[in-house]
Design a protein that fits this description.
Oligomer: single chain
Number of helices: 11
Strand order of the largest sheet: 1-4-7-8-9
Helix content: 40-55%
Strand content: 15-25%
Number of domains: 2
Length: about 300
């Protein structure tokens, strides 16, 4: 869980990927937010509970800024919005409360300055099971019907990444598009191959993308590709993974063959001892690690 969260945040922290996620999920793929208009935002905030101070941290957060001048690493201009991205690999029934807490802290921070801007949080769910019911405040807390008109029903923007329709892939353009295509198209399809347009799309952040693929699939072949000459696109990644799989399969086959050969030799020796009356059938079967009936079947004609 922690590794997945870390690698997801690493890839999304790149401004081209972050902008692509915002544009793809919120604006239908239109280039509303450019990577050059984003700058880092503070990810941590504090809250008090039961008399103690606690820290809460967003996964990734960036300001959307108008203006082109920079001051150090940050862009200087008018704040148009604050975007946050939260990653989930498991269902969290309290997610609406968490998002309210993050967004509320960001609005509270504006009271110390002159600018006022909206705060938008995107929740990306990478789990295989469908997200549960809780997508709004009213799904988490019980609100009496007579009381409902006075409660703001805060809704969260949650996207179930691996269950998105294939048409959504075309709304993205960064390395995230490659990840999205892999997650969506490989569902129940072990022979997944991307089309040439996506498969040959050059990586901008190869290491981070490969790390994320390993974290999401548990397949270390992807992170192993960071050694030496890195793959340049998804077609190369899959070709290398397939070749590595064949190589490992051959090695495992040889290993199993040796093991079977050793077992066959052992059975033959036990069979000869049994035939000469130097060992009982019970002892021979126990040494072979199998029932007597199976031992007799496998040693028939071997003595």
């Amino acid at each position: 869980m922690a590794e997945k969260d870390l690698t997801e945040k690493t890839l999304e922290a790149f401004e081209d990927v972050f902008a692509d996620i915002v544009n793809g999920f919120l604006f239908g793929g239109r280039s509303i937010v450019s990577e050059n208009s984003l700058t880092e935002a503070q990810q941590s905030s504090n809250y008090t509970a039961r008399g103690k101070m606690h820290e809460q941290r967003r996964d990734v957060a960036k300001y959307w800024i108008s203006g082109k001048s920079r001051k150090g690493k940050n862009r200087v201009g008018i704040h148009l919005a604050l975007f946050g991205i939260e990653n989930q690999t498991k269902y969290d029934k309290d997610m609406p409360l968490r998002v309210i807490s993050y967004d509320g802290a960001a609005y509270r921070a504006q009271l110390s300055g002159k600018e006022r801007y909206p705060v938008v949080t995107i929740v990306l769910y990478f789990g295989k099971k469908a997200w549960g019911k809780n997508r709004a405040l009213s799904d988490v807390v019980k609100i009496p019907e007579f009381f409902a008109p006075y409660v703001n029903d805060y809704r969260i923007n949650i996207f179930e990444v691996s269950k998105l329709p294939k048409e959504m892939i075309e709304l993205f353009h960064s390395d995230f598009k490659v990840v999205l295509d892999f997650l969506i198209q490989s569902r129940g399809n072990p022979d997944y191959r991307p089309d040439d347009l996506i498969g040959l799309q050059p990586f901008r952040h190869a290491d981070e993308l490969l790390n994320l693929m390993t974290a999401l699939t548990g397949d270390i072949r992807y992170t192993d590709m960071r050694k030496g000459d890195r793959p340049k696109n998804m077609c190369e990644v899959l070709d290398r993974a397939e070749a590595k799989g064949r190589e490992e399969g051959i090695k495992e086959g040889i290993k199993e063959g040796i093991k079977e050969g050793e077992q066959a030799g052992g059975l033959k020796m036990l069979s000869r001892l049994l035939e000469k009356g130097l060992i009982s059938l019970e002892d021979a079967s126990r040494e072979a690690g199998m029932p007597s009936s199976e031992f007799l079947r496998k040693t028939a004609g071997k003595s």
